[in-house]
Amino acid sequence: MSKIKYRKGYKYQLVEEYTIFVGIYPAEDIETDFILLSRDGFLTGKVGYAWDGPSGPTWDTPNFMRGSLVHDKLYQLMRLGLILQSYRGLADRLLREICLEDGMSKIRAWYVYRAVRRFAAPFASPDRLRPPQEAP
Q: What are the structural domain ranges in the chain?
């Protein structure tokens, strides 16, 4: 009998490449199967990138999706040890800025930002890598 290997916890998947300037300048391009952080400060999510959307006690609204995508990619790079944990503050600020650009109310964006600043640090840690699962 053959087995599959997968990771749990993802709800959304990019169907088109998405690139945004984040202002993180690695010495060399950082590239995984689904993420590229270029030396010129651009973060790209490749087709097929999967993420869990907005986390916490919240709703997955359109004005939260792009911010959650960028935030999750940056946190994933931190978990993988490919960028420093010190970029967490920048990732959290970008989440707030993108949500505001996408029409989120200032009050909700403030709440989201405060929540990630207070509770999200463990999710940037290498200890939070999602282990592969097997079935059957």
A: 4-126
